[in-house]
Design a protein that fits this description.
CATH superfamily of the largest domain in chain B: Butyryl-CoA Dehydrogenase, subunit A, domain 3
Number of strands of chain B: 8
Largest sheet of chain A: 4 strands, mixed
CATH architecture of the largest domain in chain A: Up-down Bundle
Oligomer: heterodimer
Strand content of chain A: 15-25%
CATH class of the largest domain in chain B: Mainly Alpha
CATH topology of the largest domain in chain B: Butyryl-CoA Dehydrogenase, subunit A, domain 3
Largest interface: A-B, 40 and 44 residues
Domain Acyl-CoA dehydrogenase/oxidase C-terminal (chain A): 228-372
Strand content of chain B: 5-15%
Protein name (chain A): Alkylation response protein AidB-like acyl-CoA dehydrogenase
Organism (chain A): Zhongshania antarctica
CATH topology of the largest domain in chain A: Butyryl-CoA Dehydrogenase, subunit A, domain 3
Radius of gyration of chain A: 21 Å
Pfam family, one (chain A): Acyl-CoA_dh_1
Structural class of chain B: alpha+beta
Domain Acyl-CoA oxidase/dehydrogenase middle (chain A): 139-216
CATH superfamily of the largest domain in chain A: Butyryl-CoA Dehydrogenase, subunit A, domain 3
Shape of chain A: globular
CATH class of the largest domain in chain A: Mainly Alpha
Strand order of the largest sheet of chain A: 1-4-5-8
Order of helices and strands of chain A: HHHHHHEEEEEEEEHEEHHHH
Number of helices of chain B: 11
Distance between the termini of chain B: 53 Å
Helix content of chain B: 40-55%
Distance between the termini of chain A: 26 Å
Largest sheet of chain B: 4 strands, mixed
Chain lengths: 379, 396
């Protein structure tokens, strides 16, 4: 379990940092927000990212990918968390490509993966149906027809769902099944008749869609994996997503923390720098220790994906729960330590605060993951 | 197979051949082997195991062979540790000389001092204790008052040290003493080794809340100490002390794993004392939440230890992890003891009463013992000060 980056991965991280600072700084997110951008990210930026190889990083070479590693992709995501960069990287590559790599047949891989790798085809995962993440509580149905399946139901909180070209839809194909049994995954063209998509503007200036499926007919070939056995694919995809999201959250938390420490060294009150106050020093030091632990769980989680380890599920819950908590702590403290200016829109800290709460809800909050971790450990 | 794989295989084979089966069981406090003039062994196997490890130099694997050590590099030493852990091998010898004084003598001592002290530590011939804190100098260690007066060929030492762990059983003590009362706080301090088997040195155990009394107060009344016992330069003892504190803090960060306590883990205890419901979850959901929060932090901590090691192996000198581990490790151990107490419920509350099992009795002793962890070796608050200043660069 490598817990440090190798030379190549470090180089990749530095390149990503340079690119993001220059091209997709926090200001870029403000522009998307203020212009109520329809796409939710800049097409040009996604083009740049794809050219840098980000979209192809985890895709096998046989399908035009770089087959680099999740440790590498995690390093990029961490940097993108530092500038709150909006892009389809998470939805399309981490989730979409992973689902096809894990569950897809040869035809699906050969036709879809090269297009994801080039950045030309964008995916989204249509999973959640209620206010909370409950991946095995699925009411969307897939009814067998003569030529394939008919999908009905509604999805919510679908990240980048309004702009995706293709959707991976989780539906119940065996009505008698419950929980994890009888779920199937389908690859569905987003323009298929019967699909209604509604884009929502979110707290963090990004987007998520509500999607309605009304008698959406798909062919048998749309099935990803075996009918009724979608859970194992989904579970694995979600774990990759949780760990990668934790990497992004780590970047956001580190950036927010570093900006706060700088402020403590700059701001004068009572005739001294506020960083001389022990009340603030200790809280800053505690945040530092939390962030060091957070780095370790993220790196080990990414390694667990690369090494296909059997404890992946535990690591995913460990990483997501810890980063939920740490990102929340750091953003709250950052606002408080900045004082009055911390609650102004002018300062970027508020944008990190908002992102932390959205990221927190994606694929499980801390209580979801503590419960899951305990169950995985037999208690 | 790489050289390290070969090494691992040979270590494993040697341990299997040489570690008596009785020495592969979890150790109790009574069974620990401490060195010194009055060294004793709880069993013939413990003696055999100690002697075999000593002869191999593996009581101190990373020290030079010619001084009684094993001559291993850091990676090899880690492999030895891992293989010992995998087989359940007990630590063959316990001593502050191994963990703290030895590394300082190797770094700061003269050639003569190394030859005088290092082999005796490696062979368990001398038991060491530490004299740092004083009744009036705890967190503010640099205000210490124990005086070592220059009397030509020797120092004359007067004063007292407190929290001198196992001083009543030790042969020698390494001390911080004031050699220049006029200099600024940190600048008049020297690092001195004192033979405790002489008139004027007395050690009195202090009864603790845990019922133990391993901490002592040690008094020095006109104690003569040869000049050759000074480690490092006169009045420069503070830098020796700081380097040594690093070793102590590292040890304290790891101590949770090595402290004798109940034989069950918190999870095993929870299964036994709380039990599962039909869903396979602990019946008390609040306790389950506390337990899993601890377990997850504990795992993150283990991974961070490992990451720190890897960083060092990759030559990353800008590694601030060691500075946080004392704080994080001891605070988490305290949390673990709290969780364990809660899990045992009223079965954790017996005191010196045979109606309770040994594990049950140990649980509250361990809990009480853990309270000292975030005080000894630099309080948690001092550790946070260090992180704030040294790592974050916050202004004074």
């Amino acid at each position: 379990m490598p817990l440090v980056l190798n030379e190549e991965q470090r180089l990749l991280k530095d390149t990503a940092k340079d690119f993001l600072n220059k091209t997709v700084p926090v200001e870029a997110l403000r522009q998307l927000r203020d212009s109520k951008d329809a796409l939710g990210y800049k097409a040009e930026h996604w083009q740049n990212m794809s050219e840098l190889g980000w979209a192809s990083m985890i895709i096998p070479e046989a399908y035009d990918g770089l087959d680099f590693s999740f440790l590498g992709l995690g390093a990029v995501l961490e940097e993108s968390g530092r500038t709150l960069a909006a892009s389809p990287l998470f939805a399309s590559v981490v989730l979409g490509a992973s689902a096809i790599i894990i569950g897809g047949n040869e035809t699906q891989k050969a036709t879809l993966l090269p297009q994801i790798a080039s950045g030309n085809l964008r995916f989204a995962l249509a999973l959640d149906e209620s206010a909370h993440h409950n991946p095995d509580d699925i009411n969307c149905t897939a009814t067998a027809t003569e030529t394939g399946y008919k999908l009905n139901g509604s999805k919510t909180f679908v990240l980048d769902g309004h702009s995706a070209d293709q959707l991976i839809v989780v539906a119940r194909s065996q009505p008698q099944g419950s929980g994890r049994d009888g779920l199937s995954l389908f690859i569905v063209d987003a323009s298929t008749a019967g699909i209604e998509r509604k884009r929502h503007y979110m707290l963090d200036s990004r987007n998520a869609a509500s999607i309605q499926f009304n008698d959406v007919h798909v062919s048998r070939e749309a099935l990803l994996g075996d009918a009724g056995h979608g859970w194992s694919i989904l579970d694995n995809v979600l774990d990759r997503g949780r760990i990668c999201l934790a990497a992004e959250m780590l970047g956001g938390a580190l950036e927010c923390f570093e900006r706060t420490v700088s402020y403590l060294k700059e701001r004068d009150q009572f005739g001294v720098k506020i960083g001389t106050f022990q009340a603030l020093q200790h809280r800053a030091a505690i945040m530092f220790t939390e962030l060091e632990l957070a780095k370790s769980v993220v790196l080990d989680g990414l390694s667990a994906i690369d090494e296909n380890r059997t404890d992946l599920a535990q690591l995913a819950s460990l990483a997501k729960a810890r980063l939920n908590d740490v990102f929340e702590l750091v953003t709250n403290e950052a606002v408080q330590m900045h004082g009055g200016i911390g609650v102004t829109d002018e300062l970027d800290i508020g944008l990190f605060l908002k992102r932390s709460r959205v990221a927190n809800q994606i694929f499980g909050n801390s209580s979801f993951h503590r419960d899951r971790y305990a169950s995985l450990c037999g208690y | 197979m790489s050289d390290l794989d070969d090494f691992r295989a040979s270590v494993k084979a040697w341990l299997q051949d040489n570690c008596p089966v009785s020495q592969r069981q979890p150790i109790t406090r009574e069974e620990q082997v401490w060195g010194g003039r009055n060294m004793s062994f709880p069993s013939a196997d413990a003696k055999l195991w100690f002697e075999r490890m000593r002869d191999k130099g593996w009581t101190v694997p990373e020290w030079p062979c010619e001084l009684g050590g094993g001559g291993l590099n850091e990676r090899e030493a880690k492999i030895l540790k891992e293989e010992m852990k995998a087989l359940g091998c007990r630590t063959p010898l316990y001593d502050l000389g191994i963990w703290m004084l030895g590394p300082a003598v190797l770094e700061y001592g003269s050639e003569d001092q190394r030859r005088q002290h290092i082999p005796k530590i490696a062979r368990g011939e001398v038991r060491w204790c530490q004299g740092y804190s004083e009744p009036g100098a705890g967190s503010d260690l640099a205000s210490l008052q124990t005086r070592a007066e220059d009397c030509g060929d020797h120092f004359l030492v007067n004063g007292s040290k407190i929290w001198t762990t196992n001083a009543d059983k030790a042969d020698w003590i390494f001390c911080l003493v004031r050699t220049d009362p006029d200099a600024k706080k940190q600048e008049g301090i020297s690092f001195l080794l004192i033979d405790m088997d002489q008139p004027g040195v007395t050690a009195k155990p202090i009864p603790l809340i845990s019922g133990d009394s391993e901490f002592c107060q040690t008094f020095f009344d006109d104690v003569k100490v040869p000049k050759s016992n000074l480690i490092g330069e006169l009045n420069k003892g503070w830098s020796v002390a700081k380097s040594l504190l690093k070793h102590e803090r590292k040890l304290m960060a790891e101590i949770g794993g090595d402290t004798p306590g109940p034989s069950f883990s918190p999870v095993q205890a929870a299964l036994k004392y709380v039990g599962l419901d039909a869903e396979g979850k602990l019946k008390d959901r609040g306790l389950r939440e506390q337990l899993v929060a601890h377990e997850m932090r504990f795992r993150a901590l283990g991974l961070t230890h490992f990451r720190s090691f890897e960083e060092r192996m990759h030559g990353n000198t800008d590694n601030s992890i060691p500075l946080i581990m004392k704080y994080v490790g001891t605070e988490e151990t305290k949390r673990k003891e709290e969780v364990l107490m809660a899990i045992l419920g009223n079965r954790a509350l017996g005191w010196d009463d045979p109606e309770f099992s040994d594990d049950e009795l140990l649980s509250n002793r361990g809990w009480l013992f853990s309270k000292a962890l975030s005080i000894a070796g630099g309080t948690s608050e001092v550790q946070l000060n260090i992180i704030a200043k040294r790592v974050l660069g916050l202004p004074v």
